[in-house]
Amino acid sequence: MEYVDYYKILGLDKNATQDQIKSTYRKLARKHHPDLNPNDKEANKKFQQINEANEVLSDPDKRKKYDQYGKDWQHADQFEKARQQPGGFGDGGGQGYSFTGDDGGDFSDFFSSLFGGGGRGSRQTRYRGQDLNAELHIRLSEAYETHKKTITINGKNIRLTIPAGIENGQVIKLKEQGADGVNGGPKGDLYITFVIENDSAFRRDKNDLYITVKIDLYIAVLGGEINVDTMNGKVKLKVAPETQNGTKTRLKGKGFPVYKADGQFGDLFVTYEVTIPKNLSDRHKELFKELSQHSQ
Amino acid sequence: MKNDRLIPAAEFCRYYHVEDAFINSLHDYGLVEITTIEHTRFIDTEKLAELEKFARLHYDLDINVEGIEVISYMLQKIQDLQNEVIVLRQRLQLYEI
Each residue of A65-78: pLDDT tens digit? Predict the structure, then answer.
């Protein structure tokens, strides 16, 4: 256990007045206060040292004891005996601030050895940890189903369940998964922003999906049945005769799952793109010409 | 805002030994949202941690509300930058493997 030079911590000499101690302490406390230095362990440590120095030097009784026995803290118990004598030290009391500790937990071993357990009994301020933000990239096909993922934030593995239907840019809050609190304060929260990368042929708009499907001229004219991809497999779709290029059809409930609404899905909108046959044979050309003459 | 997430401003003031005028000033500077229901003013419990911080800055460090507003803005900016650094570091890792 090392001797702690409280005067040095506050940058004062041994003859400093109470006003000087008070004003220096407040100045340093403002500089190193945990609220002003979130996630800064060095500042937090410095703040505790300043607090401890103030706890001792702002209290005439403790200051006297420290001045007398500080370097010889092993013999501090003699001080206690002296205190019992007539003319011993009275119960002094310096100006206290609300962020001084109350159980010695924040104080050094040196302090505890010299003064026992605690400070002057004022409240110990607990600080909530900093909120953290992270970005999580997932594929559209992953967002289609509820799944679990493990992410690493500040070296800590966090397993989270991503509900189906999560949207691009959506933020979810994981309570108390942020930075650790100070002095036993609660942890901060973790905010995860989802970035959804499209790995499919679908375009997503909220819970609806859009896809363009090519159909050949003959099906467009005569009608027929085609297979259309959905997010969870193929479905058969009847194409009405004389379907025009750009015609849209809606497949109800074949879109994207609705976020946190079990069993509910958006719709899938299919746009037909009619393809004109290429590399026609002579026979085909003849038939088209014949068709053309009939339609005039 | 759900009503079960609200606590009366007066209760907060009593518990934290904070003057009502301080809450009003924070509200005037847009630092705290106050919801009034049937003439009673309420604070969102989600904002309590932030409000506690403002109270500490004011009462422990003698920082006035104008100062708290600037600090709040700067801290948010620092946090945004720190978060951006985290995201960029994570992206960078993809290229470093």
Answer: 888 876 665 555 55
Question: For the segment A85-100, what is each residue's pLDDT rounded down to a tens digit?
Answer: 543 333 333 333 333 3
- Percent above pLDDT 90 for chain A: 47
List the structure tokens of A8: 């040095």
Strand partners, B71: none
- Measured CA to CA in angstroms, residue A191 lies from A95, A134, A172 at distances of 41, 6, 6
- The answer to whether A108 touches A51, Cβ cutoff 8 Å, is no
CB contact under 8 A, A29 and B61: yes
Nearest-Å Rg of the Cα atoms of chain A is 38
**Cβ-based neighbours of A112, under 8 Å, separated by 6 or more:** A104
- DSSP SS3 for A156: strand
- Distance of alpha carbon B55 from alpha carbon B72, whole angstroms: 12
Which chain B residue has its CA at the smallest distance from A97's CA? B60
Please state whether the predicted TM-score (pTM) of the whole model is above 0.80.
no
Predicted local confidence at residue B92, as pLDDT: 82
Is residue A23 within 8 angstroms of chain B, CB to CB?
Answer: no
The CA distance from A184 to A193, in Å, is 28
> Is residue B23 within 8 Å of B34, Cβ to Cβ?
yes
Give the mutation candidate from A97, A126, A135 for the B interface (greatest B CB count, under 10 A).
A135
* SS3 call for B37: strand
pLDDT (tens digit per residue) in A201-257: 999 999 999 999 999 999 999 999 999 999 989 999 999 999 999 999 999 999 999
Q: Does A133 touch chain B (CB under 8 A)?
A: yes
CA–CA separation, A251 vs A268, rounded Å? Answer: 5
User: What does B21-35 look like in DSSP terms, one character per residue?
Assistant: HHHHHHHHTTSS-EE
> What residues in A contact B59, CB-CB < 8 Å?
98
Give dist(CA B27, CA B14) in Å, integer: 18
Residue A22 contacts B, CB cutoff 8 Å: no
pLDDT for B7-28, tens place per residue? 899 988 888 888 999 999 999 9
Residue A56: how many CB atoms within 10 A of its CB?
Answer: 27
| A260 Rama sector, left if φ>0, alpha if ψ -120 to 50, beta otherwise | left
- Cβ contact B83–A134 (<8 Å): yes
